[in-house]
Amino acid sequence: MKRALYVLLFLLFSKNLSAADLTADTYWEGLKSSVTLLYQGSYMQFRAENNLYYAGAAVPALWYSFEEDKRITHNQMKKRIPKYMQVASDLAPVLSFPIVPIAAFSLGVKYDNPKSVQFAKETFATMYLALVESAALSVVDIHERPKKDKLSKWETNFRGKSSFPSGHVVPYAALTLKTLQFYGPYWAAVPGALFVATSFQRIRDGKHYLSDVVGGFFLTAFAAEGVRKAGKYQDTDTAYKSIFDTYRIGYTTYEGVLGPMISFDW
């Protein structure tokens, strides 16, 4: 896995650093912007209206997952792990390095594509915000892993004993959500499929319960919307806008009475 990482980084930098405008200062400014988005997204996720939608889905999904965790997880652990699931899962820690954001940023600067640059920054901020939050939440004693043997350093050195939520699926979840936001559902299907395959692998391998991967997804979704709000970028995909920007949920008052409000923007 380390060898694959080195090869990818070599190919990336050997190709893209040849451009005159891709200097160390360019990357440094991009990193500072990304970290700023991460910081702002960390508190703006609690103000993002779209996270109300995610919360509405997360509550019943997590309730069901916790209720059925042992049954579903133990049934899945009896099944074999196909090669494609294992490969997808093994690649996830590699993608926890900012390989995709660096590539998208480099190409965006090189070809003067602001959308690619913004995609890189928001993907970086979303992924690392969710990873930090996942590590912090794992310190809370919710439940340990179904199987505690043969854990890698990634699974022990960077988080607490609780397996909730899964940090392993965060890179794919961040890529899926940000690809959906910027480039639409067809491109998002690729990291989305890798997310699903990795989620099954983690459960079948006894490293996580169902609730862990569900929690990892929604944690990343909340971070993604917080970063989106911080980024204030408007050129999002049409399908994404139709899902998240067409409807508004809130509250209103009429003759002194408070009530719910649902608005439509068609």
Automatic annotation (TrEMBL):
Q: Which residues form the Phosphatidic acid phosphatase type 2/haloperoxidase domain?
A: 153-224
Pfam families from the entry?
Answer: PAP2 (PF01569)
Q: Which SUPFAM superfamilies match?
A: Acid phosphatase/Vanadium-dependent haloperoxidase
Q: Read off the CDD domains from this record.
A: PAP2_like (cd01610)
Could you identify this protein by its name? Phosphatidic acid phosphatase type 2/haloperoxidase domain-containing protein
